[in-house]
Fold this sequence. Notes:
Layout: E1 2-6, H1 27-33, E2 37-44, E3 51-58
Antiparallel strand pairs: 1-3, 2-3
Amino acid sequence: MLMFGYGPEPLGNPTTEITSWAAGVTADELSTRFTGWDLLDVTPGTNSVPTFWFTLRRSTSATT
């Protein structure tokens, strides 16, 4: 599964234009929320705000 998400706002970021994404999502949160999936890769996006592409694969030990 390929997931695109906003990351947490960097500490000390003076930009206050967009605040709704400030909490964002972290790799640790995805690992917790998507049990049965392995987080394979986290690639930063190229947007002006923190974004990431998360690559997950269903765990081989997961049951369907």
